[in-house]
Amino acid sequence: MIGRLLMAVVLWLAGPAAAATVGVLDSPGRVLQVTLAIDNDGRATWAVARKGVAVVAPSRLGFLFVDGPKFERNLVAGRPVFARADATWEQPWGERRFVRDDHAEMRVRLTEKGSLGAGVKARRIDVVFKAFDDGVGFRYEFPDAGAVQIADELTEFNFAAPATAWWIPAGEWNRYEYLYNRTPLEAIGRAHTPVTLRTDAGLHIAVHEAALVDYAAMWLQHVDGRNFKAVLSPSWRAAKVLRQGPFASPWRALVIAPTAAALVESNLFLNLNEPNKLGDVSWVKPFKYAGVWWEMHLDTKTWASGDRHGATDANVRRHIDFAARNGFRGVLVEGWNLGWDGDWFGRGEDFSFTRSYPDFDLKGLADYAGDKGVRLVGHHETSGNAAHYEDALAAAFDLYAANGVDAVKTGYVADAGQAKVRDADGSLHYTWHDSQPMAAHHLKVVTEAAKRRIMVNAHEPIKDTGLRRTYPNWVSREGARGMEYNAWGQPRNPPGHDVDLVFTRMLAGPMDYTPGIVSLAGKGQALQSTVARQLALYVVLYSPVQMVPDLPENYAANPVALGFIRAVPVDWAESRMVAGEIGAHVSMARKDRGSDAWYVGSITDATARTVAVPLGFLDAGRRYRAEIIQDGTGFDWRTAPRAADKAGTIVSETREVTAADTMDLRLNAGGGAVVRLVPIS
Fold first, then answer.
1. Which is the catalytic residue, given 484, 574, 627, 653?
2. Among 373, 370, 256, residue whose Cα is nearest residue 326
3. What 8-state DSSP symbol labels residue 235?
4. Which residue in 456, 471, 472, 622 has the fewest CB atoms around it within 10 Å?
5. What is the rounded average pLDDT for all residues in the chain?
6. In a 3-state reduction of DSSP, which class is residue 184?
7. What are the DSSP E strand ranges found in 51-192?
């Protein structure tokens, strides 16, 4: 108690003006403390400490409005209302089956005081904090009815200690598809979240948001020193957010963890979302899928019609046969529908979502696949034209539902700021991919799909904020630099990119990265990877829908790799990070939800290393058969592409292990390793 009061005094003295503490919220295990204060000017600030050490120094709260003065000064705080919750809930699919939600809550009403002018009613906003032992979330709640026009937030994040940051720029042309910068904290300009920090003392912090519903996404912008502010994604309107009260903002959230593993294993963003709203979701099925996709990125096939058209009956049947032979549930078909001819990038007006090219028979192919135990995976490219897509949404999903297509990959290929939406008056406007209108659009797609029992995997999407808990048919998305950059990107994804994703983008939720290019061949360039690394990505980068993207003939030439891809699950009972550091290497262990087998995937950056993987996650007293696939000696990201078709690229071995053992995995430069651990009867 004395320590908590002392920290409140320290944070109070550190504030920009003399401040009075309104309330202090301890996390359940008294690891984190949140302090809300009001200074002499009536400004509200929040701060966070971990075990008595400041993590977030006093940081202001508030709003700018289009139709009224800012909500920041002359505030009076009501008496804090505290609550406590500790429950465990079950995911229908996910990285782990059961999730514990253990938090303390503090709610405080902020009300304006003093003279506001004739006829001006004092406004009030509630601030709600949730403190977990591994992080903090807070949001604003507008309790009164009426229109609210938010120009921007005044929310700040004033970090107390020097740190290294991993981040990508926000407000630039390529949405989220950038390689991650590694810089001092102060060198961040304007960043998408999650932003990941590692303080000089070794504390790990991820800044993100949760439950982004009918609101503009939050960008993080540097102010000065180690102080940052929330900036809302713009649209064409002066108001970045238009809402009718009562309503709540998304949660502003920080994972605060002592280790990289604790950062990766946190469930905070999920726990800040509402429970499943769809009811029975037994129809949402994790699966692996092949498809007509990689050959287009190799430029041997095209989305457009013509001699090289990829979505033909014959070519799709070839992929269906491949999927059926190997037990893959789905076959994605891109380029099947009219609209790909000509200049489709960033336009979308010409796409039909119900009419196919003459050489593609949707019903015939769906029936052909169904007879073999396979389902087609639909594809709706919009070129960012959300307005045109919404006009066709009901008919498009009805067509898929009538033909047994229960999963769809959507696409929004357009430069950032060039998405198209329709205003209430019917007029068309350009907007950002993560603006409020696009947040509403994506949720409309997901809910309309759910009515037909269709799963959604969005590409060029709005970022993941944990809404898969509330809408479990939103199974995956892109939202980062994916595998296709290895085919034609300049630069290609370097080996460190996949490692960075685990500690940044993947903290937000599943990513359809499309691993498994065992040929290691792109469009006139080689992948900066090894074969074993491509296999490890199925375990390291989580998604409940995993693609098997390489050409069927390339898998036929790599039977050991294909065997592992056939075996690796996509739905897990438990997931743990068992080794790794940001920007260097990572090893993930996951337990199959359908058996007692565990899988370990390990990858490294461009540096070769041997990683010690403790097996304490296994059941004590049981013996396991460890089936190991590693890079062959001498095959690293520089040499493997030139010898991917030669023996020795990957090597296999089997040994017996127990939970008391530590397994040393050899990771060649840019390489990886996978282990399947099966209990011995």
1. 484
2. 373
3. -
4. 622
5. 95
6. strand
7. 53-60, 63-65, 75-77, 81-90, 98-112, 124-132, 135-153, 156-159, 163-167, 181-184, 190-192
